[in-house]
């Protein structure tokens, strides 16, 4: 708890949210444009003293992922819908304590302005799952990208 509070205040000072699993644009923004081809990055820090072993990303509807950056050490599985769009991505691998991993992918945004809500589920080696899906927005916020 103390570490979370400390991280929050430091993040507020430097204007960067460094903790939590987050989806941002490649340059770290929470804003993009409707219909644009964008590179996103999913940042996953291990915040326990055991390793993260699996990360599941739920892709907002209307987002069309076309490419993933190679990330040695991780295996990726995707689920697609009837239209061939990637709806879920699961990465398995290991993010040790005091480490973070960044997963980059290229996607085309939906044509209409709005808010993309990215839900992330982070599994640790003891089987516990941390939900970044707004089930509890205070402790487990989902990432939002505003499309203008
Ligand atoms: Cu955090």
UniProtKB/TrEMBL annotation:
The record's listing under Gene3D superfamilies reads:
Uncharacterised protein YcnI-like PF07987, DUF1775
Could you tell me which InterPro entries the record lists for this protein? YcnI-copper_dom, YcnI-like_sf
**Signal peptide segment:** 1-21
| Keyword list, A-Z | Signal
Annotated ranges, domain YncI copper-binding? 31-137
What is the protein name stated in its UniProt record? DUF1775 domain-containing protein
**Source organism lineage?**
Bacteria, Thermotogati, Deinococcota, Deinococci, Deinococcales
């Amino acid at each position: 708890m103390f570490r979370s509070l400390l991280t929050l205040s430091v993040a507020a000072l430097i204007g960067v949210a460094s903790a939590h699993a987050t989806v941002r644009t490649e340059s770290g923004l929470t804003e993009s444009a409707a219909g644009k081809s964008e590179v996103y990055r999913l940042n996953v820090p291990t915040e326990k003293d055991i390793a993260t072993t699996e990360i599941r990303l739920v892709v907002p509807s209307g987002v069309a992922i076309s490419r993933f950056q190679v990330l040695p050490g991780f295996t990726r599985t995707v689920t697609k819908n009837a239209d061939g769009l990637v709806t879920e991505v699961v990465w398995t691998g290991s993010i040790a304590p005091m480490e973070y991993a960044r997963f980059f992918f290229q996607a085309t945004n939906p044509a209409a302005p709005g808010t993309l809500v990215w839900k992330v589920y982070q599994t640790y080696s003891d089987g516990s799952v941390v939900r970044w899906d707004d089930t509890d927005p205070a402790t487990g916020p989902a990432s939002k990208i505003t499309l203008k």
